[in-house]
């Protein structure tokens, strides 16, 4: 079992990895893209030590290169689920599993919702972002799941075990995994209902449903937090003064824990959480 897996190779994840590596701790960093600064070509000017402004993408790519050059193991993959196991965590990616004594969530704040009529109204009233957390409330009911890839597949496997019928809505995206049930490919138009959601409307027709689960793209820290029962307050993962969540061995840093959403704050968090993880590993050996 590894000592630390860091989910996210943005400023928080990479800074933590650098400090951990320099403390002689084996660390694996998994990230799926360039995070908050993906596709951001405007210049960063407010970060220390830039002799001239660099684009957001360049800064993030430089951080990743710095980690690789230091010999830090770094993978490009989507983490799709986190589970507690004896002595640590199992981290499931699109392609494989890893096990670690501690996990650092540094996945930034992006959360994949849907800009569709009725989404805000029925979120929590028939629309859920976490099948593993809320699926039980829909046992033996007719539900939908929105998504088209591995994360959707992971959530679907769970729903298939407990729900009477599950319809997959790809919302106009091509399906990238094989599923053996009804798949609706037309784009979603609205979530409909009264007190609670009752229907999903697509460009073609209305589908009566008791609930809808979103599993679009890859999960964010908030979805991981929900999977593990981590306390979240106003959209941020709650941590103690050591950056540890209410789940022992599970740490979080960067934008996801709130405060100033800035690179320098994410780097500061990364440095501090590395110290806390080293202490945790020492006292739990
Ligand atoms: C348009 C824009 C402009 C900005 N400009 C500035 C600026 O000028 N100055 C400044 O200080 N700050 C700026 N910020 C804020 C800054 O980008 C963030 O505060 C900082 O990037 C946060 O770092 P982080 O490591 O917490 O998260 P992020 O940088 O968001 O990194 C998150 C990481 O998590 C990974 N990840 C997420 N989910 C998964 C998953 N399921 N599996 C695997 N990996 C996953 C991503 O691939 C990424 O590597 C800007 C932000 C935006 C959006």
SSE topology sketch:
Elements: E1 2-7, H1 11-22, E2 27-31, E3 43-44, E4 54-55, H2 56-69, E5 73-76, E6 79-85, E7 88-93, E8 97-105, H3 119-122, E9 127-128, H4 131-134, E10 142-146, H5 150-162, E11 165-169, E12 183-184, E13 188-193, E14 197-202, E15 206-208, E16 211-214, H6 221-228, E17 232-233, E18 236-237, E19 250-252, H7 263-283
Bound molecules: flavin-adenine dinucleotide.
What does this 3D model show about the protein?
The chain is an alpha/beta fold and 285 residues long. The longest helix has 21 residues, at 263-283. It is built from 7 helices and 19 strands. The strands form 5 sheets. Strands 1, 2, 5, 6, 7, 8 and 19 form a 7-stranded mixed sheet that branches. Strands 9-16-10-11-12 form a 5-stranded parallel sheet, with helices on one face. The chain binds flavin-adenine dinucleotide (FAD). Flavin-adenine dinucleotide (FAD) binds at residues 7-13, 30-33, 35-37, 40, 44, 46-47, 56, 78-79, 106-108, 218-220, 254-255, 261-264, 266.
């Amino acid at each position: 079992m590894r000592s630390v897996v860091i989910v996210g190779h943005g400023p928080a994840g990479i800074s933590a990895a650098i400090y951990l590596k320099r403390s002689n701790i084996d660390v694996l960093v998994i990230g799926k893209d360039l995070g908050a600064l993906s596709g951001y070509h405007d210049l960063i000017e407010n970060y220390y030590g830039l002799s001239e402004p660099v684009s957001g993408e360049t800064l993030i790519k430089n951080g990743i290169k710095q980690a690789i050059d230091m010999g830090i193991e770094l993978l490009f993959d989507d983490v799709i689920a986190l589970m507690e196991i004896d002595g640590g965590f199992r981290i499931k990616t699109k392609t494989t599993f890893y096990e670690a004594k501690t996990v650092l969530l540094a996945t930034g704040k992006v959360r994949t919702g849907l800009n569709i009529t009725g989404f805000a109204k029925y979120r929590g009233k028939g629309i859920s972002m976490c099948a593993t957390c809320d699926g039980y409330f829909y046992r033996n009911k007719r539900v939908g799941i929105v998504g088209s890839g591995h994360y959707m597949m992971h959530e679907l496997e769970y729903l298939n075990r407990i729900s009477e019928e599950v319809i997959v809505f790809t919302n106009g995206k091509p399906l990238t995994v094989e599923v053996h049930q009804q798949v609706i490919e037309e784009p979603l138009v609205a979530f409909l209902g009264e007190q609670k959601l009752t229907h999903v409307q697509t460009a073609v027709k209305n589908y009566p449903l008791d609930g809808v689960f979103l599993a679009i793209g890859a999960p964010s820290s908030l979805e991981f937090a929900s999977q593990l029962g981590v306390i979240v307050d106003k959209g941020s993962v709650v941590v103690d003064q050591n950056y540890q969540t209410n789940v022992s061995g599970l740490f979080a840093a960067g934008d996801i824990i709130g405060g100033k959403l800035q690179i320098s704050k994410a780097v500061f968090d990364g440095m501090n959480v590395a110290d806390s993880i080293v202490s945790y590993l020492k006292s739990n050996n």
